[in-house]
Amino acid sequence: MNGPLDLDIPWLRPLQQSLTEAVDQGRLGHAVLIQVDPGLGGDWLATWISARLFCSSGKAAAPCGQCVDCRRVAAGEQPDLLRLSPIEESKEIRIDQVREMAAELALTGHGRGRKVALITPAERLNRNAANALLKTLEEPAGNSLLLLVSGEPSRLPATVLSRCTRVGVPVPSTGELVSWLLTHGKKGVDWRAVLSAIGPRPLLALQVDAEAIADLQRETVRALDQVVSGSLDPVETAETWGKEDFALRITCIENWLVGRIREWATGKGASSSEALFAALDEAREARQWAETPINKPLALERLLWRLNAAATTRRPA
Ligand SMILES: [Zn+2]
Question: Are 136 and 142 in contact (CB under 8 A)?
Fold first, then answer.
């Protein structure tokens, strides 16, 4: 989980409210898919709603965060709350994990009989695991609840999706995220630069070395401006960037391009929008390469040349 149970996350509040009502009125169903981009607090929300189910304070404002059940949930020690995530190096949630969970759900709960399984990020269920999960979705064990958290639900089989109640969280504006980080994060950090490097992931931003990332973002933007103006060699730059922080550099490049496209849209930029959009597509594609053994310096070099071309291609007069 990210953060304590009493964290106040404004963009999650409407969903907290509606999920709370659904729980109280007993109409939550037995499988809920929370669609939310990673780093926006989906895991936290799923944990929070679990804590509400387990909280033994009897308070209307549950989870209280204080009782033994809430503390167990927060510490990851609630025996009736099962968590399924990719194990260590494996990037997938595997069938044996799902089978184990199903067997566990079939047993009676330790407390008041309720068991919750939290699957996150759910799109990491591999094909066999998703198939195995179907059985549990079709014949839920007793009073169990399945909570799936996913930023990319389209990667889940339709058969799984159709058996879940789907709820979503829209991505808040950067301004809203920055002001939240100013209240909840370390003082004196350039949070806008951090988000520009890691994407709109405020809860992740709280866990990383924010100052180092802000520095990296500023350095990347400076270098991109120089590559485009011809004062920095794309080959050398790509060589350095390909060695480490590949994913961060790519997100910086994406945001740099989005900035250029915005300039263009407001009539300020002189570049051709077509070339900029083509470069943005390529940058987004490059993001998928972060976890592959592709030759990253070469991929980056190609992208930098593309940026260079995009920035110097003039918009038609
Ligand atoms: Zn409690």
Answer: no
Contact 168, 149 (CB under 8 A): no
**pLDDT tens per residue, range 221-266:** 999 999 888 889 999 999 999 888 888 999 999 999 988 888 888 8
What spacing in Å lies between the alpha carbon of 40 and ligand 1's midpoint?
24
DSSP 3-state of 33? strand
The alpha carbon of 6 and the centre of ligand 1 are apart by a number of angstroms equal to 11
Cα 183 to middle of ligand 1, angstroms: 25
How many angstroms is it from 55 CA to the middle of ligand 1?
Answer: 4
Phi/psi of residue 116, nearest 5 degrees: -125, 135
Dist. CA 248 → ligand 1 center (Å): 38
The pTM for the full model equals 0.83
205: enclosing H helix or E strand: helix 202-205
| Least confident residue range of 1-5, 77-81, 148-152, 174-178 | 1-5
End-to-end alpha carbon distance in the chain: 53
